[in-house]
Amino acid sequence: MPDSTIPDSTMCNNFHTRSHSRLSSLLPVFAVVLAAIGMTACGGSEPVSDQDSVPDWYTETPDDPNHVFSSQSATSQRMQVAVDKATTSARGDVASKLETQVEGMSKSFTEEIGDDMRQQFVETQKTVTSRVLRGTNVSQKEILQKDNGTYQAFVLMEMPIGKAAKEMMSKIKQNDEMYTRFRSSQAFKEMQKAVEEYEQEQQQGMTQRSQPQEEEDGGNQNR
Q1: 2: in domain
Q2: What is the CA radius of gyration of the chain?
Q3: pTM exceeds 0.85, yes or no
Q4: Where do the segments described as Disordered lie (predicted)?
């Protein structure tokens, strides 16, 4: 019997992010050039052969104001090719979403820092956004093999907003004039807040990872 499929439109709608004021403020800072680095957008996701086999995180993408997520799938006769195709599609989906959100925001942000700084700011964005996409993480992955021998890969891509903000802030600080102007903008305040929350999140993660080891060491001493 032929495999049942779900519409392609459902695949393209799998990427969801919360409408959050901080995300909207940060998008003009490090996302305006994402679509220009050669990534493929949402059209790369392929029909799913068996709805019952679809991971929950694929149909219900995680929702977190501090991260951007994208879930995509792809098929191939070779397992790694399927994974690579799904990963590239997910990165492109992140870029496409951010590009859509940033339309109309770039002009107002440029007015804040001054039009004469625009070219330098764009060059800074290019450097940082390239790093951001390279640093996105595949947080979930599942591979299915169909009856005909082909592989279908499901990938969940995660991009921390705070990490991107931290890299952008560090790069801007290298240009004294740009940093002086940028500090007076609302975007700076939002970015600074995102960086602080990201660092707190990282610190909490380190603390949680160290606690089991401390408990284990304490147990060994009591033996």
Answers
A1: no
A2: 21
A3: no
A4: 190-223
